[in-house]
Write a structure and sequence with these properties.
mainly alpha; globular; two-stranded antiparallel ribbon; single chain
Amino acid sequence: MREFIQLWKEGRTRFTNQLANIKQEDLSKRLGGSPNSAGFLIRHMAEVELLFAKNVFGNLAVKVDAQTLKAGRDTGEWTDLEPLLALVEEAGRQLEIAIVSQEDWEAIIETKEFGKKTKAESLGRITTHTAYHAGQLAILLKYGQ
């Protein structure tokens, strides 16, 4: 279990290490014709982590309003830094609680988004999802307008 937490936390640093230097004005940055702003990506990563904590790993105490998924696109509303940072912190806390509570990592989880996966594979899925978008965020913050 400890090893899974360490792997997940290390993978998540690709995202969280960027947040210490982000500024309010960075949240509206986009790269070229990219449909997603920095604020949208941050919100999206936190929401998906919360969804995994609740729907994949069974942390039913999680409350999540997946606004980025409901909107299906960047609506330009995710431009307030403090609530975004608070959501990221809450997502990390809730996902860690969910990961720690797991016992059978070979149990199969089925979702409409990615089909059937073991819990271990699902942990890989959320870790790489966050890292994937963290890479997008890094490029956007560096080169975006």
